[in-house]
Amino acid sequence: MRIGLDMMGGDFAPTEAVKGVKLYLDTVASDVHLVLIGDEQQLAPLIAEAQLDQSKYSVVHSSQVIGMDEHPTKALKEKPQSSISIGFHLLKNEKIDAFISAGNTGAMMVGTYYSIKAIEGVQRPTISTLVPRENGTYGLLLDVGINADCKPENLAQFALLGSLYSKHILGVPDPKVGLLNIGEEEGKGNLLAQATYPLLKESKQINFVGNIEGRDILSEKADVIVCEGFTGNIVLKMAESFHEIALRRNIQDDYMKKFDSESYGGTPVLGVSKPVIIGHGISKGTAFKNMIQLSQQMIESKLLEKIKESFVVVAKDAQQ
Amino acid sequence: MRIGLDMMGGDFAPTEAVKGVKLYLDTVASDVHLVLIGDEQQLAPLIAEAQLDQSKYSVVHSSQVIGMDEHPTKALKEKPQSSISIGFHLLKNEKIDAFISAGNTGAMMVGTYYSIKAIEGVQRPTISTLVPRENGTYGLLLDVGINADCKPENLAQFALLGSLYSKHILGVPDPKVGLLNIGEEEGKGNLLAQATYPLLKESKQINFVGNIEGRDILSEKADVIVCEGFTGNIVLKMAESFHEIALRRNIQDDYMKKFDSESYGGTPVLGVSKPVIIGHGISKGTAFKNMIQLSQQMIESKLLEKIKESFVVVAKDAQQ
User: Fold this and answer.
1) Taken in order B8, B14, B18, B21, is the CA torsion positive or negative?
2) What digits encode the pLDDT tens for the residues A148-182?
3) Domains, chain B, ranges and CATH?
4) Is there a contact between B149 and A190 if contact means CB atoms under 8 Å apart?
5) Is the pLDDT of residue A320 over 70?
6) Backbone angles phi, psi at B247, to 5 degrees
7) Which chain A residues have a beta carbon less than 8 Å from that of B245?
8) What is the tens place of the pLDDT at every residue in A260-284?
């Protein structure tokens, strides 16, 4: 198993990326081979200092970097030697089995769309966030930003993608799916939510439990919460701001600490045919380590095969 | 000045409503006359116990109550002797100058639409929530639930209504208006946000400062944040859940305490021709007191006259 890591992506690259690799190799036993994509000259002293096991990694040189604020399509076109461009090239040509970056999110999305395909039947790939709950488990909220406007069918697909992720990666046997809404009863909400409810109710592939209000996002009422990416992104960033406020105000609380994006690393792009994981720009060592581990889990659990099988059913149902 | 209060609305009525009246009369000097609408038999012993100043209030008997979960339109039709029905009757006939209830929100909204008119030029009346900031001031977020689907023009009107409220009630001289969105630059967001941005930018009646992301809702970047009621309601309820979690986990922090709905009482229905204030179902004494005080402020500041004047300008601009 070969996992590719963009060593130049994120606010603290490449130092923290190397730290993440070290942490992963030191703490996780696996036969994963890491492909470190980045500037050889910058990486060499950091790798030497970290004393990485040479049998566990190889370095692929990249001479360019896509900045965090560059225009995604333009940057990918003009910088074929960037770590992100090379990463997708390797992924497309099966030189690596997964690709991770904490770099320019837009470039990662565009790269994903251009280099690898959506799984057959998936209308819109999606990104999610883990939702920490007080009982120590994690819920999943999706979409959190790449699909700002959605149709009911998109949300129904997010529900299925999220359920499979919750089951195979988070270990929830029969994930409860909730529709983010502004009232509990069927018929409540905006036009999108009203039209989505019956689709979720009728689906035999998910365990739909009804509407979930804003006050229940952090509860255990649902394991998978679906919404369009506009609301999902606002919720995600507001939760992050609560975490920052808690830090700034020196609030010592184990639960509040779990909102730290560092603890879960990054989000996979769900619905595409290969594992792509996008990290937060502020990722540090632990986040990189967690993203490598998540890639490994996605490959070992055969999540993408399971998504493919489920969407064959979706495609068949659509034809009937 | 006569302010009408539904004594039967809310989870802890009439006990907490009477406490609120007592608190108001004891702590706020004013020539307000309170009209207490409720069941005389239930109110009498509570009022006697509270030793209210008899010159400051009168009781209007109501023999029916609209429950928190009743269907709004049906309940208002079938219960003409309910405290909410009587309250709107008094407001319509100028027996009171403002009406407050912590009862059935739907019934309050329907009652408002049927009994008193929207201000000329206002397409959609709206409700808002105060947003506590760490520096002790309050921002305003609107709409928070009654307009789940909006057009760009609606959001532009919320911006103006919110600005006037921020200026005349919250005392912010030139309120900064932000558009809730999922990116900072113009052109970001869903179709609604993309179409709303230029309207806000062009408006001469507001001080537009651009897009506001989820992480900045609690900051001082904007004093008035506009969005459709779906996202606004999710944000509001999620913030309330953070407050509940902080309470449950015994987190002692002055800022977190400010998310208690008790501290600001209720939301006025903005855009209608008379002051109507809707309280949270869980309102207790302080919330009732604060709602009475807010009604008084709305009348004394002549907020509604100012809204009327501003919307004459809107109507004229629309004709040109």
Assistant:
1) negative
2) 999 999 999 999 999 999 999 999 999 999 999 99
3) 1-120+271-302 (3.40.718.10), 123-263 (3.40.718.10)
4) yes
5) no
6) -65, -50
7) 134, 218, 255
8) 878 778 999 999 999 999 999 999 9
